[in-house]
TrEMBL record, chain A:
GO terms for molecular function: DNA binding; DNA-directed RNA polymerase activity; protein dimerization activity. Pfam families: RNA_pol_A_bac, RNA_pol_L. CDD domains: RNAP_I_II_AC40. It comes from Trichoderma asperellum (strain ATCC 204424 / CBS 433.97 / NBRC 101777). This is DNA-directed RNA polymerases I and III subunit RPAC1. It is found in: Nucleus. HAMAP family: RNApol_arch_Rpo3. InterPro entries: DNA-dir_RNA_pol_30-40kDasu_CS (IPR001514), DNA-dir_RNA_pol_insert (IPR011262), DNA-dir_RNA_pol_RpoA/D/Rpb3 (IPR011263), RBP11-like (IPR036603), RNAP_Rpo3/Rpb3/RPAC1 (IPR022842), RNAPI/III_AC40 (IPR033901), RNApol_insert_sf (IPR036643), Rpo3/RPB3_RNA_Pol_subunit (IPR050518). The keyword Transcription applies. GO terms for cellular component: nuclear DNA-directed RNA polymerase complex; RNA polymerase I complex; RNA polymerase III complex. Residues 66-371 form the DNA-directed RNA polymerase RpoA/D/Rpb3-type domain. Keywords: DNA-directed RNA polymerase, Nucleus, Transcription. The keyword Ion transport does not apply.
Automatic annotation (TrEMBL), chain B:
It comes from Trichoderma asperellum (Filamentous fungus). Keywords: Metal-binding, Nucleus, Zinc. Residues 1-28 are annotated as: Disordered. Its main location: nucleus. Belongs to the archaeal Rpo12/eukaryotic RPC10 RNA polymerase subunit family. It is found in: Nucleus. The lineage of its organism: Eukaryota, Fungi, Dikarya, Ascomycota, Pezizomycotina. This is DNA-directed RNA polymerases I, II, and III subunit RPABC4.
Automatic annotation (TrEMBL), chain C:
One of its GO terms (biological process) is transcription by RNA polymerase III. Belongs to the archaeal Rpo11/eukaryotic RPB11/RPC19 RNA polymerase subunit family. It is found in: Nucleus. Residues 39-49 have a biased composition (Acidic residues). Keywords: DNA-directed RNA polymerase, Nucleus, Transcription. This is DNA-directed RNA polymerases I and III subunit RPAC2. It holds the Pfam family RNA_pol_L_2. The keyword Transferase does not apply. Residues 1-17 have a biased composition (Basic and acidic residues). Residues 65-136 form the DNA-directed RNA polymerase RBP11-like dimerisation domain. Coiled coil: none annotated. InterPro entries: RBP11-like (IPR036603), RBP11-like_dimer (IPR009025), RNA_pol_Rpb11_13-16kDa_CS (IPR008193), RNAP_AC19 (IPR033898), Rpo11-like (IPR022905). It comes from the Eukaryota.
Amino acid sequence: MAPSRHAAPSAEEHLRRNTVGINKETVTNVSSTDFPGHFPGEDHAFSIEQFQSAFSIQFHRNEANDASFSLIGIDASLANAFRRILIAEIPTLAIEDVFIENNTSVIQDEVLAHRLGLIPFNGGREGIHNFLKWYKKPEAGEDPYANSFDWNTVRLELNITCTVNPDAAPTENDPLKAYNHAHVYARDIVFVPTGRQAEHFDGENAIRPVNPDILIAKLRPKQTINLAMHMHKGIGADHSKFSPVATASYRLLPLIHITRPILGADAKKFQKCFPEGVIGLETVTREDVSKPGSGYEGHLGELKAVVKDSMKDTVSREALRHAEFEGKVKLGRRRDHFIFSIESTGQWDSDELFLESVKHLKLKCKKLEQQVINMVQ
Amino acid sequence: MPREEYQVPTTSGGASAGAMTRGATGGERHDSRAVMTYICGDCGGNVTLSKDALVACPHCAGRVLYKERTKRMVQFEAR
Amino acid sequence: MPGRTKAQDDASSHDADMQDVPPSAQEEISQDAEMREDAEAEEEEEEEIETQRVRILPGSTDTAASFEFTDEGHTLGNALRYIIMKNPDVEFCAYSIPHPSEPKMNIRIQTYDGTAVNALKKGLSDLQDVCDVVAEKFWSERQSFNAEQGIER
C-alpha cells in the first residue's frame, strides 16, 4: 500500500503539473500524473468527495442548438468518453429505407436515397425519445415488413412532378420561373402518421426536416419522383446520419504567462499576435515599479501587456515566432479544463445531449458491472 | 441495391413470381400481347410498339428508342 | 469476421515468460498451478437475453487478470483505465484494442492487494459515481445559467 502521508503540492506545483507546455515546435507534459504512487507521499486515490469538490462546470452559452460550457477538474479520458458518446452512441431518428416507385430524374436512385438519409429531422420530443423504440431488421428469410410497427417506424413520402409553367414568358431562362417544382426541397417531404403516431406527432410536433430549404434534386418537365421512406432509430457508430450532433468538440483552456515585462511598442505588437480581447494594454503603475526585480523599474507610465481573457485565444503561437518576446512569454494549456462545444442537428437540445451522454456512460458501466458479476459466478 | 433478384419473365414462372411479389411491387402483369411504350431518343415522345412492329417513332421517324423505367418498386438503404 | 489463425485456447503463448519481465508485486507461481479455464459463463436468462460481453482471458490469476470486453472501445476503455489506476491497490492497469476490425477491448489489471475482479468492479462503480456527480452539477449549473440569462427551456 502506498504510504499514507498526505503531502499536498503547493499551488505553483499544482499549476505546473496541470499545464501542458506549448513551445515553438513541441508540446510538453502531456500525460496526466495524478495516480497513486506517482508522487511519493501524496495521496491521489480516487475519492468521490474529492472529485466532487474539485469538479465544477461553467456555462458560456446555451442556445437550443448550440451550447458551450467548461468542465473543470476532470481528466481527459472522461471528457473524451463523453465526447465520443455524444457523437456515436446517442440514438436519433433518420431515414433508413427508401422505396422508389418511380424516379425519372437525373439523380440516380441510390444517390437520391443517400441524400435523403442525410437530411436531419425534428419532431415532438416526447414522441421521439419515449414512444419510438428500436427497430430490429428482420433476418434474411423473414418477411421484410414483419417488424415494422407504429412504435418503431415513421413513414414519409415524397411525390413530385415537374411541369411546364404555362404562365411564364416563352423566352424565360430561369428554371424556377419557367417550370413548376423544378427544385425538390426537403420541405416537399410529407409525413404520413400511422397508428398512434397521429397523437404523438401532431401539429407542432410533426416529424419535419430541421432545415426545409435543403435541395434534394432538380427536375425538368415530365420528370417525376415518387417514393416512400421509412425512418428508424439508430446510432452514429452505425452510420453518421444518426449522429445527433453536427459536431461535439472540446478544447483545453489556453494559458498565457508573461514572465518578463513587455512594454511600449512591443506590447502593441504582442497584442496583435493574439486574437482581439486576449491581451490588454495597461499603464505601468507605481505599484509595479516598486516591486523589486519585476523588471518594471524605470518604466513608470509606459504601456504594458496584460492577459485579459485567455479563453478567446486560438493558440496560434504567433508570439513565439518573434525574437523580441523570447523568454518573456510562456504558452500552455490547462490539462483539466475542457471547453466543450456541442452543436446539435435539431433532434435533441444541446444541453439535453450532454446529460444524455453522461447517463449513457453510467448505463454502460451498470450493465457491465452486472456482466462482471455474472462472469465470476 | 435492389431487394428483389431479377426473375426471367416466363409464362409459368411469371405467374408464380407475380403472386409472390405482388404485395411488394404492386403487381407487374405479364402481357402476352407485348405492347410496350418506349421513349423516342430525338423528340422525347411516347411510342407504343407491339410485337413485330417497325422500330420507328411515329412523330419524328427517329429510330433510337429507349425503354421506360421499370414499374416495379425498388428499395434502397439510405446509406 | 476475419478468420482466426490460432485456436482460441492457446493460453501459454499469449503470456510473456515470467523470468523476463521486471519484478512484479505478484507471487511467484508455477505456470500450470493457478491457470484457470477462461470463465465463460453460460448465457444468463435475464429479462432480455444478453450475451456475455465480459470474459476473463486465460492465464489470469487472482491478482493479475486480463478481461476481454466485447462491443467496447476507447470510449469505455480509457475512462475505465483512468479510474482503475486511481485505486491505490492496483499495481498495473492498461487497456488495448487487439485489432481495430474487431470490436474487442482487453483490460489488464494487476493488484498489490485484493483481487483483480474486485478492482474492476470498484472501477465500474466509481465511474458510475463520477457520472452522477457530473450530471448533477451540470444540471444545476444549467438551471442557474438559464435563470440568469432568462432562457426558458
